[in-house]
Amino acid sequence: MHPANDPSARPRLPVTLRLSALAAAALLGACATTQPAATGAPSPAAPATTGAEAPKAATGPAAAASGPATGASAVATRPTPPDPTAPKPFAEVSKGATRQDGLFPIWRKDEKVWLEIPRSALNKPFLFDVNIASSIGERGLYASQMGPSTMAEWRRIGNQVQLIALNTQFRAQGGSQRAVEQAFSPSLIGSVGVASADDAERKAFLIDAGFLLSDIPGYSTRIEAAFRLPYGPDRANSYFESARAEAQLSTLAARMHFVTARIPAPPMTPSPVPMPSPPQTVPDPRSFFVTYVYNFQALPETAMRPRLTDPRVGHFPQSFTDFSSDLKANPRVHYVRRWRLEKKDPAAEISEPVTPITFWIDKNVPERYRGAVEGGIVEWNKAFERIGFKNAVVAKQQPDDANWDNMDGKHASIRWFVGADVGFAIGPSRADPRSGEILDADIGMSDVFARGSRRMIVEDVGRSAATAQGMPAMPGAFTAHGLPGFASHAGHDAHFCSYAHEAAAEMHFALDILEARGDIAPDSPEAEAFVQQVIKDTIMHEVGHTLGLKHNFKASTTIAGAQLKDKAFTDANSISGSVMDYNAYNIALKGEPQAGFNMTTLGAYDYWAIEYAYKPLDAAAEGAELARIAARSTEPALAFGDDTDAGGFGPYDGMDPLANRFDLGDDPLAYYKRRLQLSQELWSRVQERPAQAGEDPLRRPRSMMAGFNQLYRSAELVGKYVGGMHAVRDLPGTTGRASLKPVEPAKQREALQFLATGLFSIDSFRFKPEFLSSLTVDYNEWDRPSVNLPAAVARVQIVALDRLLGAPTAQRLLDLPGYVPESQRKGLISLAEVYGTLQSSIWSELKSGSEIDRLRRNLQREHLKRVQALLLRSTSSLPPDALSLARLHATQLQADLRKAAAKPGLSIETQAHLADSLGVLTEALRATMQRS
User: Residues in domain EcxA zinc-binding (predicted)?
Assistant: First the structure.
């Protein structure tokens, strides 16, 4: 009950005063029956009566003709004064306003905007979402980003209207529904007073849309996370810049002004924790505008029949907890997120759909790339044709003079956006929470490829250049869709895809190699064709996401290494089993035949995943047919592993060396070795090529760093072999295969040796002094440092160290014998062997008595830091046996350091390094361990 209507919420008089007031009212009421009211004095109201005692008011002409009333009759017939708090008439509020008819009609007059809410729309669910149409272009705050969404409804309490986000995470049917509603609360998005009385003809009332000129999606938290400054929305300088309405949709674009009172002065003493700078892309960092696009979209009258997911195939789920029955051990339910696709002619073997999946190419996509974008969209029709649909996916170009924004809730779109530090593409979608039916999708693609084609990927993406040169990334660079406000909890909202940036970096490396070999010229038609193909590949990938497909980071391993050298094979089948992998460029080594470079079409997995999600099936046969389709997961060409399998975020370090981002072929370790050879070839050719007059001064530093970026990724992934486990997604009782299988000991040792002799070796990173001394910086950009060779080498090596010395690797190596029958345990690799091999490789100079190069000293210091941390700051996640082994090997290292430090003839730098290392390690061994 609204407080205004709740008697318990009204002010209460003391008991004695209440009694006195009641007595006085009774006395006045009695007097009113015998005496007329005094002229000019207020008349007391007659006491209320109920039931048979209630007097009936006179009505009709006879009552009017009886003449003026006096006495008690005058009190009874005096007109009630108008309620000053009552809403004004609908016509009075809307006078002079223009109306746009739609799901919730929009009325506009000057700067005022109202929404018309039909009484029939109250308590009726619809989809409410917010998109970010424009922003400031840095630190994750980018334009053209799909924001949060929820199933919502209008609720009216008295003269207050609430916009409520419904809780779709927990559901029930039957008798459990009331318990679920009591247990799990909805959320209030916003509320506003009724602006008008009901219109009798429309059976609707108005509300002031100004309540939307607030931070409903929680963008201020994202801003604060990026800059660590308290920005807030400025209502007075925010406004609605456009509106659009139609039968199933109402859209309002709000131009939101964000402001902070002041930019604080930097501290007198630099903080040990790096702090981000204020916004750099706006004229005044205290003020900027962001455009929200609010969408009110009708849900389908009849929900689509849902289709359950299967973990053997990768689809984004629409997930919820179902409390309808307590007989299920696991109440979680997962529906496939997919578009509603129905044949016009169900009896035809192949038919056009009733409603095709239509993607609009935004008018902000550069004209030169529109053909590649369209090609990436319609390529998916090949998969739909296999299951009986013709022209299931359609690409349309938004006219350049169009006055509508496809960030509304009706147009699935491909949008092009720019930023000072941006380099990614993203393919989010929105679905009906009831069924998983995808209703909208907006692919955002940064202009990273335009820069990539001009070799600007490393330097011209702002702060990312620091990361590329071995410097830590600046904090606050988050994805724009991770808003802290209401969320649909669909599983896909947390998805982030960096494929565009990574693919552009791969393209940059490939073009540098080919250019250095003389196979391609900068800015040539061949180079432009390269760029166009990568754009098509990336659009295929992102459209796959908007069709409901997750990443598949095992797909690249379904193609044999020999097939990658066969041009006829790659022309027909491309280079990977799926466009949903992060596929590297297929670059031949010097002297090898060159086959196809990158993904040009769909892979076998893509056809399979589309079949599971979209094949038309009768309800009665659907379960059995889906089980049959999913059972094909044992076919080698359909191997699947998603982001969790690949690891690299949260608690997941990734334990299967066949589930990776950016590898090629059925032997990823062989691919990483080839990458080292290609990087060394690039460095050799760049050093041999003299600088040319008029050349971009950053050309050679870029090529140098391109090789290091390849090795950084390789070092991270090689470490997955050590203590690795192959994982398959078979359901219990379906195949008899082991779900987890340790990586072959020989392969683990091969990976260790590659690190020891390759990435940990100084010989892998030798550059001519003449080359290093010729490298320059961009003197127009003072905050961009010159190339730091030791830092770049350390970045490659540290990622492998952290992997091999981490707690997950130690735990798996200790657990490994438990996964192997006792008769087969001979020859297994152990944690002791890994620690020993790593230590002897990194500190090999201690045995040989040779000088220790500067780059090697850096590597040894990094190893010693991690050993010291293990000895002094043990965490509960590191197994006790791992601690014991770490101490044992540290004691051996201490003895080796003593012997090496006593040898004469070493340089002063090496002597100092040995003495310092010995001192640090000795202190760590003597200290008391701080166990947590």
Answer: 525-847
